[in-house]
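Show me any protein, keeping tokens residue-aligned.
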Amino acid sequence: MRQLTALDAQFLNAESETTAAHVAGLAVLDPADGAVDREALARLLSERVHLSPALSLRLAEVPLGLDRPYWTADPGFDLSNHLFETWLPAPGDERALAAEVAAIHARRLDRAHPLWEMHLIHGLAGGRVAVYTKVHHAAIDGVSGAETLATLLDLSPECRAVEPVEEDQEGAPDLLGMLTGAAVRGATYPVRALGSLARAAGDLDAIPLAGTLPGARLIARTARLLTGDRKPRAELPRLTAPRTPLNGPISGRRELSFGSVPLKDVKAVARAHGLSVNDVVMTLCAAALRAWLQERDALPEEPLLAAVPVAVRTAGARDVVGNQISAMAAPMATDIADPHERLRTMGATMRAAKRRFAQAPADWLGELCSILPAPVTSMATPAVFRLASVAFPPINLIISNVPGPQFPLYLCGGRVLSYYPMSVLTDLSGGINITCFSYDGMLDFGIVACPERVDDVWSLIGFLRKALDELLDERVGDELGDRVGVDLVAR
């Protein structure tokens, strides 16, 4: 019997009529002569669902929401509650696929069952099929999501044999035990809340919006001294999110776009400038956002502020359900017109953020979620998120880059051609989310948006391509030989 952490529970609390808090991925496959069908997927899932706890456990709610829920085995597990099948109308192009997936992505998961769904989508152009899978963010983060995906995939068209295991069933928490735990945590809440508040205050200057308060750096240094933390901290820039059309209350509707760029080209830019692949990814996103806002005469003078999730999952935590993540806040250099100056600035910004994180991996995200008691948090979160989106949005968007394997993978014998990740929109984090996944020589981008905030999500994919073209200058051109342009590949 495992209780959700405060951070895990916060992903449940964030859900509302306009927010569905799951992460997802869209795999486009060569179906291997029709081998990828519902029967094959059902057989695969039946054989391997035990390999990932996130797929086999459901929530056990504490009465009256007095405490955070627990994970428990689902004795009535039925695959029909999780595996679905649909067909696209002709001609089955990328826009039709995106529209179908956006409608599925907008729907919240049923909490009466383990919190995941898989949708097999037929009718894509060229005889391809797609598999869209979503899992609640309360159960997985980016790293554990990739691990969950890996349990279903194979290194060759031949499906590997998986030995059945004696499952260690998560016992259902009894009512008395849950209420007793709630009473104990309620009695000790003031002490725990003060500890969380003190630890969060030590990173006050690294928390978006809070870091702009008068004396934030002094408060942070004082809090660290009081808690015995004397590690040095790198200074961070002012973390302020400017007003943009991207921010404000969102609706329950979703639109998405997806596409890929060659990873070798991104690596070539990174090598030429002494930067990391992630630095280049952040620069491409900054350029695309700048172009999109300029097109609408809505580009602020200040740089946009992005939250960048960072995995802090340890090697021994492979089978742990839930999140082990933190976040860095990074100004996006959207205020800089020159592509190469933007790249240099973005690289310097990310180095400063990484240096600060390496000195003391910030756990302020989890600590902030622990400050209020569970009943208050569950009731107040949607209203607080909505109010913040109108009054003082802390960030403009979330950008996430998840590393993946650089070799082909197979699902039910069908080769995975691309894997486009998709994440969560909330009032607090803005009406757009950009996630990318490196796979088999490509960087696959998935962009999720609220149509009330972003009127043309597909143009951002084009701007990403243009941004990479701009960075492939003569120095990189020499490295690439006679390369003629960069094609954005929607494989």
Observations:
- Residues 175-201 form the longest helix (27 residues).
